[in-house]
Amino acid sequence: ILNVEQSPQSLHVQEGDSTNFTCSFPSSNFYALHWYRWETAKSPEALFVMTLNGDEKKKGRISATLNTKEGYSYLYIKGSQPEDSATYLCASHYGGATNKLIFGTGTLLAVQP
Amino acid sequence: NAGVTQTPKFRVLKTGQSMTLLCAQDMNHEYMYWYRQDPGMGLRLIHYSVGEGTTAKGEVPDGYNVSRLKKQNFLLGLESAAPSQTSVYFCASGRIGNTDTQYFGPGTRLTVL
Q: Which among B42, B96, B106 is the nearest to A43, CB-wise?
């Protein structure tokens, strides 16, 4: 079973700060890396799916990079806002065509106004 | 287009009771998944289905059964509930493809006394 690790576990920043977190995953048999945003009392929502080494994806102030050779992905948030407060999950795909995902435990981000 | 829905939203059971959680999706997705989410742990896959009439075990299948009689529905059954099954259960669905995102339901909070 794959082990997907995220750090830090939690992060408190001030409004306007930029921040980043890390997702580490086994690089062997890599298929895809997913990032989800999970607000309290809601369900996880997909942010990005990345497959190629060196991939960079961006959605507004949030961006992500992927290094499949060393097995890590970074998620960046530029100019954090209180509405960015959420848990950010990464998941590594495994299992061939079934699209099964192994999730990390998430990074809980709290943005203070 | 309701996306992924789950019923019920909350349930309290006594040890030994049985129940069925229903997941429905209206996106014509082939793949469906049941996860459980526990404090300090990532989402863990219980069972999944790659199409109508097919099911397979995930990471933590013991104590659960599933059925996919119709493409749009995926049922999770607990035959004899145990306190260790107290958790939040999430259903997800997705299209065929290694890199496609999964769409999550709102979750069912189950407490087993």
A: B106
Residues of B in Cβ contact (< 8 Å) with A51: 98-99
Q: Please tell me the distance in Å from B113's CA to the nearest CA on chain A.
A: 23
Least confident of A61-65, A102-106, B38-42, B108-112: B38-42
DSSP per-residue codes, chain A: ----EEE-SEEEEETT--EEEEEE---TT---EEEEEE-TTS--EEEEEE-STT-EEEETTEEEEEETTTTEEEEEESS--GGG-EEEEEEEEESGGG-EEEE---EEEEEE-
Q: A101 and B96 in contact by Cβ < 8 A? A: no
Backbone angles phi, psi at B36, to 5 degrees: -120, 145
Any bridge partners for residue B5, and if so which? B24
% pLDDT > 90, chain B: 86
Q: Which residues of A touch B56 (CB under 8 A)?
A: 98
